[in-house]
Amino acid sequence: MSKSHIKYSSLIHFESFNDTFSPSRIFAQIIILQSFYYITAVAMFCFLASLSGYPFTFDWIFSWEPITFQNALGLTLTILWIIDSFVCIIFMTIIVGRSKLAWDFALTIHAINFCVCWIYSGKLPSSMLWWGLQIVSSVILVSLGTWTSRWRELRDTFFDGLTDTELGNNDNNEGETIAMKDMSRQNNINEEEHNK
C-alpha cells in the first residue's frame, strides 16, 4: 500500500462523521446551512420581485448596498432578511440540533455573508443599516437558535417514551383506556400499612 494512499484514506473517516464535533461534519453543516440561508433568501426575493414588478437581481442577496431606508425596496429587503433569519432557525435546529453549537453556526453564517458581500460588491460594507441588520439577524439566530436547539435536546432526553395519560396513548395499552386510581383511597391504605 502506497504512502499517499494511507495519507488520503486517513483524511476520510465516515465513522467520525457521526461525531457531533467532527470537523468534517461541522464543515458539511456549515455548507448546508449557508446554502439554505441563501436559497431561502432567493426564494423570498424572487417572490417579492414577481409581486412588485421589480427585476430580480443578485445584488439584493450578495451586496450590502440595496439595504437602505431611503426607498421601499431597501426597507422591504431589510424586513425579508429578518424573516430569513427566523426561517434559518428552523434549519439550524434540524441540521445542527445542538444548543452548544448555535452561537458558532449563527455567527459563522453572518461572517461568511460578510465575506461574500465584501467580495461581490468589491468594497467593505459601510452602511450602518447593513451592520445593524447583521447584528439583529445574529441576535435572532443565536438566541432563538439556542432556545429551539435546547428544547429539541431536552425533549429527546427527558420526554422520550413518556405517554399522554389523558388521551390514553401508551405503547403498552395500544388504544386501551387507562383506569384512574382513587388517590385518596390509595393514600389511606398506605397510611394504614405504615401505622401497623
UniProtKB/TrEMBL annotation:
What is the first-listed, main subcellular location in coarse terms?
Golgi
Q: Name one Pfam family in it.
A: SYS1
Q: Tell me if Translocase is a UniProt keyword of this record.
A: no
How does the UniProt record describe the way this protein sits in the membrane?
Multi-pass membrane protein
Q: What does the UniProt keyword field contain? A: Golgi apparatus, Membrane, Protein transport, Transmembrane, Transmembrane helix, Transport
Q: Pull one GO CC term from this UniProt entry.
A: trans-Golgi network
Taxonomy, superkingdom = Eukaryota
Please give the start and end residues of each transmembrane region: 26-52, 72-94, 101-122, 128-147
Q: Does the keyword Iron-sulfur apply?
A: no
From the Swiss-Prot or TrEMBL record, state where the protein is found.
Golgi apparatus membrane
* One Gene Ontology biological process: Golgi to plasma membrane protein transport
- Record family assignment: Belongs to the SYS1 family.
Q: Which PANTHER family match?
A: PROTEIN SYS1 HOMOLOG, SYS1
Name of the protein described by the UniProt record: Protein SYS1
Species of origin reads: Pachysolen tannophilus NRRL Y-2460
